[in-house]
Amino acid sequence: MDLDVFVSAHRAKWDRLDTLLRRRGRLNGAEADELVGLYQRTATHLSLIQSSAPDPQLTGRLSQLVAGARSAVTGTRRASWRDVTGFLLEGFPAAVYRARHWWVPTALLSTVVAVLLGWWIGTHPEVQAAIAAPSELRQLTRPGGEYETYYSSHPAAAFAAQVWTNNAQAAAMCLVLGVFLGLPVLWILFQNMLNLGVGIGLMSSAGRLDTFLGLVLPHGLLELTAVFVAAGTGLRLGWTVIDPGPRSRRTALAEEGRAAVGMAIGLAVVLLVSGAIEGFVTPSGLPTWARIGIGVVAELAFLAYVYVLGGRAARAGGTGDVAPIERSASVPTAA
Question: Most C-beta atoms within 10 A of its C-beta, which of 2, 263, 273, 312?
Answer without folding.
Answer: 263
